Amino acid sequence: MPPATDRAQPGRDPLPIARLVYFLYFTGFGIYLPFINIYYNDIGLSGVEIGLINTLSPLVGMLSAPLWGILNDRYGKTRVLLAVAVVGSILAGWGIAAAGTFMVLVPVAALFSLFYSTISPMLDSNTLLLLGDQRERYGSIRLWGSVGYVLLTLVGGYLLERLGLSWLFPIFTLCMVALLISLMWYPTRRVEIGSTPRLFVTLWSLLRQPRWLVFIISVMLVWVSANGMHTFLGVYMADLGASQGLIGLTMAIGGAAEIPSMYYGSKLLKHLAAKKMIAISMFAYMLRMFCYAIMPSPEWAPAINLLNGVTFAFFWIGSVAYVNELAPDEIKATSQGLLLAVLNLAALISTTFAGWLYDTAGPANLFLILSASSLAALLIFSFGTIALRKNHTDKTVVNR
Q1: In whole angstroms, what is the distance from residue 357 CA to residue 367 CA?
Q2: Which one, out of 23, 174, 201, 332, has a CA that is 20 to 30 A from the CA of 29?
Q3: Residue 263 lies inside a defined structural domain of this protein
């Protein structure tokens, strides 16, 4: 195995700064994600237009995230690349605030995705390298992102209700500036690799693995469901008469529900393993979408969002760990970028279709279909994994 290069300061624990960086990144995520589509709705965009914006942006992320990961794996300039991504996100965010029409918003939102989509996979891959042989502790580091998300969705919802939705851009900027400052002390670690052609050969060997293909197909289906929810739950609640405060509370409860799962992530991985965590999350997503479909009023949403502790938390811990298991050391950042690319591809498929369903079939039917998508993901992942394991066992017996 190639040696790892550690740029953390000798004698200092790098993990407190890693926790802080996650916290600050997800404060920005917590003010932007729950409210940007409500902002689009507030300035007069239709469900289809909101869906189109949320389709083109993931398309950019799908293409750009692996490229950023390849740059990071090849040259190891993690801190520099993160700083560029943060500054670009700030500038593009203000571009969204200044855009007054759908035609202007589309390219600006895509530019935002070009920068913002790269931050999470680079943080995840670097954290796993910092943890070394203790990668099961990833969840206990990532939980600080959930804390930041909860804080800003809860406080931000009430602030935006009083100040107006346009204030999400100044608040987002403050969060990103704090993140940019913290990167000055952010520790990085990378694996020394050979030439660029070797990197692509290793990447191609990963993409051809049957386990990777089963994982990719099932992840796409479950993220079609999750992304449809992320895009239209707030809009659905607003249409049902929910205040910005109730929407922010709902998202904050969902984020808070992640924290215990993230904190005990190492124990969960030890007792359940990554594949079981992914399967459990898919079942929980199916149940969660069904509950949204039948809820009679928006006041039910906070209780339903408690399922986020199993849906997203189990999905993310399990998926990051599983991808890390499948990928060779020299393409760890690239593989995490590929995971994000798959999620962006699922979002690309989901958002326009979900927007069309929201406008034509109504939100209840939309969430019923999203529930069915999660069920399909569960069946493909579970039976595909069982079939591959049985095939491997049969080959082992024949070889003997």
Answers
A1: 9
A2: 332
A3: yes
